[in-house]
């Protein structure tokens, strides 16, 4: 593509304001300034355009020479060669660090599995541990049951407090809390009762029985207390204790029995829910949950590690291609500069010839027009005796010397030598080395 625009006669004539100058000249009857204003201005316009074109040409040549004489080409080739030595160790170190983390999770998982296996063997367990997947939800049910028991019992115990229903609810909620504590003790006793060791099993049985008896005692005491409230509110507590000792099941009223039944029913509900919370064999549920969590943590860590390793390998391959692309850009720039300079040089010579011819045509048109204007307006010939301005261009030195051409050849041969003889082998070795990067076998 040519970068020089050859001036057109009409454009120059317009830019010199020929019509205006001719008119002013004729009005002043002074034709001597004609050559100095119109033709000289046209000459200056052509020379200014030539100087700008020369500047562009020399600037492009300087840029080409700078690239030839710089070490950018050699540096780019060296960068591609050194990617393997620079990037691979960094990638391997990163993957080794990831493998270490996965190994740690694997070690934890194996330890937990070994502990679980040992626990099952020592305690002669053949079934899988059963426990709630959502203990928070279970505790929510227990709290709701406590509130429900408190609301129901508050109606029965409202006489026991000067605050009426509110006081009754507080007392009932306290009873419900004791009820939950006894249910928890009962379930713990049941768990230890199932233990393989006879001593532990006996202790569990004692705890189970004691918790159950306390719960029954509390339930009966609550019933006697409710019955005593109907007789004497102030002495209800002492009357309830005496009545419980004298005749445990001698609760006098239906409401009192109903209150006792509610207390026992909520206790049973608590026990059922607490049994569902965890494995009945003591410690089995805990160690199973820990083992399951360790397995999940290991699986998650390994999955994340594999994705990260895959990402690292992609980045390593991308580093090689990026380095190679930088070399390709420099090679392309070198070729384009060389080709462009050759075309620009040819364009410039054509441009000079065109400009000289154009300037002569321009001057001839100006003189003819001036003569015509004079004939029309003053009916006399214009004075065209002065010679036409001379249009000369300074010599342009060679853009690319023989030394520059030889250097270009050396640079291009160096790129070709690397691209065709070394690159593919280097890329294959590099990609094979990248493919070999992976998590250590111990993490499998």
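-> sequence recovered:
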């Amino acid at each position: 593509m040519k970068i020089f625009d050859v001036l057109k006669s009409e454009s120059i004539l317009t830019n010199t304001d020929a019509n205006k100058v001719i008119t002013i000249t004729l009005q002043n009857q002074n034709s001597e300034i004609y050559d100095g204003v119109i033709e000289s201005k046209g000459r200056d316009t052509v020379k200014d355009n030539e100087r700008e074109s020369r500047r562009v040409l020399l600037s492009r040549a300087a840029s080409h020479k700078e690239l030839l004489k710089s070490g950018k080409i050699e540096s780019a080739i060296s960068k591609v060669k050194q990617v393997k030595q620079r990037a691979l160790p960094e990638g391997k170190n990163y993957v080794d660090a990831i493998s270490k983390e996965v190994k740690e999770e694997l070690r934890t998982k194996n330890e937990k599995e070994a502990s679980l296996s040992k626990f099952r063997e020592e305690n002669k367990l053949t079934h899988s541990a059963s426990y709630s997947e959502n203990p928070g939800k279970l505790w929510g049910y227990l709290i709701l049951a406590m509130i429900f028991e408190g609301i129901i019992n508050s109606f029965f115990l409202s006489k026991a407090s000067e605050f009426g229903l509110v006081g009754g609810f507080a007392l009932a909620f306290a009873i419900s809390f004791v009820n939950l504590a006894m249910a928890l003790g009962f379930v713990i006793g049941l768990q230890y009762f199932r233990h393989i060791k006879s001593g532990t099993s006996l202790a569990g049985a004692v705890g189970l029985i004691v918790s159950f008896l306390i719960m029954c005692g509390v339930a009966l005491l609550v019933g006697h207390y409710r019955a005593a409230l109907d007789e004497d509110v102030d002495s209800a507590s002492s009357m309830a204790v005496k009545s419980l000792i004298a005749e445990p099941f001698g609760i006098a009223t239906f409401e009192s029995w109903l209150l006792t039944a509610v207390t026992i029913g909520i206790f049973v509900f608590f026990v059922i829910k607490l049994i569902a919370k965890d494995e009945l064999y003591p410690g089995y549920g805990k160690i199973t949950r820990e083992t399951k969590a360790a397995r999940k943590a290991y699986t998650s860590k390994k999955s994340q590690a594999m994705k990260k390793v895959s990402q690292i390998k992609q980045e390593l391959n991308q580093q090689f291609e990026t380095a190679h692309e930088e070399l390709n850009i420099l090679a392309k720039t070198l070729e384009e500069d060389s080709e462009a300079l050759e075309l620009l040089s040819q364009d410039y010579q054509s441009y000079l010839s065109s400009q000289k011819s154009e300037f002569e045509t321009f001057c001839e048109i100006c003189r003819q027009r001036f003569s015509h204007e004079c004939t029309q307006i003053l009916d006399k010939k214009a004075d065209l005796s002065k010679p036409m301005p001379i249009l000369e261009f300074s010599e342009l030195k060679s853009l690319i010397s023989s030394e520059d051409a030889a250097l270009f050849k050396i640079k291009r041969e160096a790129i070709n030598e690397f691209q065709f003889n070394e690159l593919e082998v280097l890329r294959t070795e590099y990609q094979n080395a990248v493919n070999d990067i992976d998590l250590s076998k111990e993490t499998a």
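The chain has twelve helices and no strands.
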